[in-house]
Amino acid sequence: MWDGIIIGGGLAGLLAGIRAAERGKKVLIVSEGVGSLTYSSGVIDLGDAERLMNQKSHPYALLGERVVRSAAEYFQTLFPDYWGNWREPQFVLTPLGSPRKAGLIPRGLNTQALSETHKIILMALEGMKDFFPEVAKSNLLKAYPQAEVVLHPFRVEAFEAWYTLGKPITGMDCGKYWRTASGIETLKGVWKSLDSFEPDKAVVIFPGLTSVFSQPLREVQSNLPFSVIEMTAFPPSDGGYYLYRGLVQKFKALGGELLVGSGVKKVELKGKQCHKIIVNSKGKDSEFSARVFVLATGGIFGGGIEVTLEAAKEMVFGLPPFVPSGWTNSEFLGEQPYARMGVETDNQLRPIDSASKEVLLENVRIIGRMLAHWDPWVERCGGGVSLASGWFAGEQV
Ligand SMILES: Cc1cc2nc3c(=O)[nH]c(=O)nc-3n(C[C@H](O)[C@H](O)[C@H](O)COP(=O)(O)OP(=O)(O)OC[C@H]3O[C@@H](n4cnc5c(N)ncnc54)[C@H](O)[C@@H]3O)c2cc1C
C-alpha cells in the first residue's frame, strides 16, 4: 500500500510527489506521458496573484496567500537557479525580442540589465529555426529606446552537418550543444570574437543558450566582463525540458517511484473512497492501492478531460467537470471559456458536486490543469496554479 499515488507526471503531479516524498511518504507517480512542461518555456508564470486570490472560485482564492507564497518559495528552495518572488513580476524576452511579464524565472533570463544599457549585442546563430534576428532587433529597439542594437551573426563548426543538409538548427539542438564540453570551449571562442565590440559596455543577448541547471555554463558566464541574457524559445523548448528533468531527478532522489508510459484505465471505489487504480502498461494491467490519490492529468490538453460535441468527461474517476455555458469565443485570440473547464473542489482540493457542494471522493485531491475556474492563457498563471495546488496536495498525502 502506497501513502500516495499521483496520477499524471506534469509540473503539478511532480511537485506534489516531491513534497510528499520529502515528508517521508511512500509515493508513486503513474503517468501516461511527460506532460506539457516540455512545450513550455520553463518560466513559471504566477499571474497577478494578489488579484486572482480575490477572484471567486479561482484556485488561488481556494488555496489562499499562505499556500501560493509557500509553494513559490518551496520551488525556489528546490531550484535555486530560479529567481523572482510570488508578488512581483519579472520580465523575460520572448523569442521575438519583446519583454513579457513572468513569475519565477531561470536566472539567465533576467532582463534587468537591459533597462540600463546603451548597447545591446544580439547574437544570431546562422541557420537557427524560429529565430528572426531583424524582428527581434526591431522589438528590442522599441522596448529599450535608450540603447543601440547591434546584430552579430555567427556560424559554428559543430553545426556544419546542419548547414550542409539545409536542416534548421532547433532551440533544443542549440541548448544541448552549448552544454557539452566542446560547446563550452566554442562558447569561449564566441565571447572572444566580441572583443572588437567593446562588450564590457554592452549587454549580450544570446538566443539558444540555456544555462539553467548547468553549473559549467553558469561558471563560464560569471567570469565575463558583460551580462549575458538568454531568451525564451518557441515550443518545444529546452528550458521546459530541463525543468522537467530536474523535477524527475529530485523526485527519484527522494525515493519516489515514477512509471511513465502507464495510463490509469480503471479505478475501484467503495462509497466515497478510492481503493485501487488499474494501470495499463505495455498491454498488461497492474493494480495499485494507496491511502490518498492525487489527480493531475492535465485537463483537456493533458488528456484528463475528454470533450465531445455532446459532453465533457473526466477520464479516470468519471467526475462531472464544470463546463462553462458557451464553450468558445469566435474571436480567435480572445478569452476562451472552455479554458476554465475542470473539476470543482472544496478548499482541501477534494472533488465536489457543483450543485450540492457535497464532497464526492474523500481521499482524492485534484490539482493543476484539472482544477476548474482558471485560464492559464488570459490570467498567465499556468505554472503558479500547478505549483500551489501541487505543493498543497503534497502536504496532504
Ligand atoms: C504549449 C504550452 C506552453 C506553456 N507555457 C507556459 C509557460 O511559459 N509558463 C507557465 O507558467 N505555464 C505554461 N504553460 C502552462 C503550464 O505548462 C501548465 O499549466 C502546467 O504545466 C500544467 O501542469 P499539469 O501537471 O496540470 O498538467 P500536464 O503538464 O498536462 O500533465 C498531465 C500529465 O498527466 C498525464 N495523464 C493524462 N491522463 C492520464 C491517465 N489516464 N493516466 C496517467 N497519466 C495521465 C499526461 O500524460 C501528462 O503527463 C504552457 C502550456 C502549454 C500547453
Characterization of the model:
The chain has 397 residues and is α/β, with parallel strands linked by helices. The protein has 2 domains: 206 residues, FAD/NAD(P)-binding domain (3-Layer(bba) Sandwich); 150 residues. Strands 1, 2, 11, 12, 13, 14 and 17 form a 7-stranded mixed sheet that branches. A 4-stranded parallel sheet has the order 8-7-9-10, with helices on one face. A hairpin with a 4-residue loop joins strand 15 and strand 16. The longest helix is centred in the first third of the chain and has 20 residues. The mean pLDDT is 94. Bound molecules: flavin-adenine dinucleotide (FAD). The site of flavin-adenine dinucleotide has 39 residues, from helix 1, strand 2, strand 12, helix 10 and helix 12.
Indicate the topology.
Elements (H helix, E strand, L loop, with lengths): L1 E6 L3 H12 L4 E5 L17 H4 L6 H20 L3 E2 L6 E4 L5 E4 L2 E2 L12 E7 L7 H11 L4 E7 L5 H6 L5 H8 L2 H12 L10 E4 L8 H8 L4 E4 L7 H16 L3 E4 L2 E8 L2 E9 L2 E12 L3 H4 L2 E3 L4 E3 L49 E3 L9 H4 L2 H15 L1
Helix pairs in contact: 1-9, 1-12, 3-12
The protein binds flavin-adenine dinucleotide.
